[in-house]
UniProtKB/TrEMBL annotation:
Its EC number is 1.1.1.26. InterPro entries: D-isomer_2-hydroxyacid_DH (IPR050223), D-isomer_2_OHA_DH_cat_dom (IPR006139), D-isomer_DH_CS1 (IPR029752), D-isomer_DH_NAD-bd (IPR006140), NAD(P)-bd_dom_sf (IPR036291). The keyword Chaperone does not apply. Residues 16-326 form the D-isomer specific 2-hydroxyacid dehydrogenase catalytic domain. GO terms for molecular function: glyoxylate reductase (NADH) activity. Residues 112-295 form the D-isomer specific 2-hydroxyacid dehydrogenase NAD-binding domain. The lineage of its organism: Bacteria, Pseudomonadati, Pseudomonadota, Alphaproteobacteria, Hyphomicrobiales. This is Glyoxylate reductase. It holds the Pfam family 2-Hacid_dh. It comes from Kaistia geumhonensis.
Length: 331
């Protein structure tokens, strides 16, 4: 009988996925769900043929260099793969896979929720009834936000999630603009009635809402730098459900605090899980809505991500190319 591959999983996964994983592979689970230290990850990479990490595991070049020769596949339970030094892995002959597509709609829903929540002061309003309970009733001038319909949305990164955000925003009467590494296919642009901006700077200066939906790569670190954030209009909002490091967080905080940008809706942060206390104060003041990196957090999505991990591992050990290989052209 063929030897079952030895798989190490770094965090708890949905029950159904863990059960199936145990049926199919020689599986080590992280039952306590405590994040693995770099030493624990290094040890796991010494014994595993397959590592199943998530976005909270930093698989850097040093860890990959120290991995045992039996490690053949890093099958990440995530869409983004910026936590893995893919180039170093591929150089060592270790394949890398991710779980694209199955969390597109969930993450776009959460992005749209932030696009609505920030200008319409949703969280502030909800807090009035849950905490203080001192609501004196409806008044014509209290708790006024900004209208969403008729506004211009600029999407940075018009891939799967960016396009799904555009589809939703159109239904709210928002006009779609985008900046992407490459212009998207004409039929996609046409269906979304989307306007392409070759210049990110020019787009930033004209939009009411900016949504960040590009991956974190060496090229997108602080893509929204202080200089670029300063191009935004004082009435504009920034929403980021991609990765914290794409935005210069300290500059964003400064500009919101000074009124140079109206506010922000964030699901991701530069130093997760640490949150800059100044951001928490802005949240108290109703200037930002902060979510704890939960863009893809649905039961359905997490099960489908797990299924993708299973399929990728099986395909690899059956001698096929796993469907969700991260290729050098994607880096
Ligand atoms: N908050 C959350 O829970 C989640 C966050 N994500 C994040 O969302 C990101 C996007 O996911 P998908 O839409 O599935 O990826 P995708 O690969 O389909 O789309 C990304 C788009 O960004 C573009 N892009 C790359 N570099 C760019 C640059 N410098 N400037 C402008 N555009 C650039 C690409 O050309 C591509 O069209 C992931 O990489 C991940 O970091 C993904 C899932 C859940
Ligand atoms: O941020 C989550 C992911 O899957 O990427």
């Amino acid at each position: 009988m063929k030897k079952r591959p030895h798989v190490v999983v770094t965090r708890r996964l949905p029950d159904a996925i863990e059960t199936r994983m145990r049926e199919l592979f020689e599986t080590e689970l992280n039952i306590d769900d405590v994040p693995m230290s770099p030493d624990a990850l290094a040890a796991a990479m010494q014994r595993a043929e397959v590592l199943v990490p998530t976005v909270t595991d930093r698989i850097d070049a040093a860890l990959i260099a120290a991995a045992g020769p039996q490690l053949k596949l890093i099958a990440s339970f995530s869409n983004g793969f910026d936590h893995i030094d893919v180039e170093a892995a591929l150089k060592r002959g270790i394949a890398v896979t991710n779980t694209p597509g199955v969390l597109t709609e969930d993450t776009a829903d959460m992005t749209m929720a932030l696009i609505l929540a920030v200008p319409r002061r949703l969280v502030e309003g909800a807090r009035v009834l849950s905490a203080d309970r001192d609501w004196a009733g409806w008044t014509p001038t209290w708790m006024l936000g900004r209208r969403v319909t008729g506004k211009r949305l600029g999407i940075v990164g018009m891939g799967r999630i960016g396009q799904a955000v555009a589809r939703r925003a159109r239904a709210f009467g928002v006009s779609i603009h985008y900046h992407n590494r490459h212009r998207v296919a004409p039929q996609v642009e046409e269906a979304l009635e989307a306007t392409w901006w070759d210049s990110l700077d020019q787009m930033l200066a004209r939009m009411d809402i900016i949504s960040i939906n590009c991956p974190r790569t060496p090229g997108t670190y602080h893509l929204l730098s202080e200089r670029r954030l300063k191009l935004m209009r004082p009435e504009a909002y920034l929403v980021n459900t991609a990765r914290g490091e794409i935005v210069d967080e300290a500059a964003l905080i400064k500009l919101i605090a000074s009124g140079a940008i109206a506010g922000a809706g964030l699901d991701v942060y530069e130093n997760e899980p640490m949150i800059n206390p100044k951001l928490l104060r802005l949240a108290e003041a109703g200037k930002v809505v902060l979510l704890p990196h939960m863009g893809s957090a649905t039961i359905e999505g997490r099960i489908e991500m797990g299924e993708k991990v299973l399929i990728n591992i099986r395909a690899f050990f059956d001698g096929h190319k796993p469907p969700d290989r991260v290729l050098p052209s994607m880096l």
